[in-house]
Every structure is written in structure tokens, then in C-alpha cells.
Design a protein that fits this description.
Blueprint (H helix, E strand, L loop, with lengths): L1 H114 L1
């Protein structure tokens, strides 16, 4: 009987080892599946975050375009006003020059009448 026990126990050892390896592989597989699930969830969150960032970028670009348009309009208006102010200044300078000439001629004619 002793020899048959030895044979049974020798045959059981590889099966136990195989069962232990299978259990270890199952645990490793479950661990990898959990990691994969976490990774997929993290990827989904990153996609959502990327979409939100993309939407914010789109809004910012539209705002930039509107601001550039408004800035262009303001610059054009400022140039127009500067031209109008310059024209008005030139007109006032001409009026002042004419008034000075008139004043000089009036002063010189008054001086000549007083001296006589």
C-alpha cells in the first residue's frame, strides 16, 4: 500500500501546482481587468475634459474675433475723428490768422490817423 500512496501523492503534486498556477492566473487576470476598467474610466474622463477645454477654446476664439472686429471699428472711428479734429484746427488757425491780419491792418490805420 505504501507504493500506491506515493504514486498518488506524486500525481497530485503537479495537479496542485497546476491549480495554484490557475488560481494565480485568475487573480492576475482579475487584477488586469480592474486596471483596464480604471484605465477606460480615466480615458473617458480625459475625453470629457478635453471636450470641455475644446468648447472653452471655441468660445474664447469667437470672443477674440468679436473683440478684433470691435477694435477695428474703434480704430477707424478714431482715425475719422482725428481727421475731423485736424481739419477743425486748421480752420481755426486760418480764422486766427485772418483775425490777426485784420487786427494789424486796423491798428496800422488807427496809428496813421492818430499821428496826423
Amino acid at each position: 500500500m505504501a507504493p500506491s500512496i506515493a504514486i498518488t501523492s506524486a500525481a497530485a503534486a503537479p495537479q496542485q501546482r497546476k491549480a495554484g498556477e490557475e488560481a494565480a492566473l485568475r487573480r492576475r487576470n482579475e487584477e488586469l481587468e480592474r486596471e483596464l476598467k480604471k484605465s477606460l474610466e480615466r480615458e473617458e474622463r480625459m475625453k470629457e475634459e478635453l471636450m470641455r477645454a475644446w468648447e472653452r477654446l471655441s468660445v474664447a476664439e469667437e470672443a477674440e474675433e468679436r473683440l478684433c472686429c470691435q477694435l477695428g471699428e474703434l480704430e477707424a472711428e478714431a482715425v475719422s475723428q482725428a481727421r475731423e479734429y485736424r481739419a477743425r484746427i486748421m480752420e481755426l488757425m486760418e480764422q486766427l490768422s485772418g483775425a490777426e491780419k485784420l487786427l494789424r491792418s486796423a491798428t496800422s490805420s488807427f496809428s496813421s490817423t492818430v499821428s496826423q
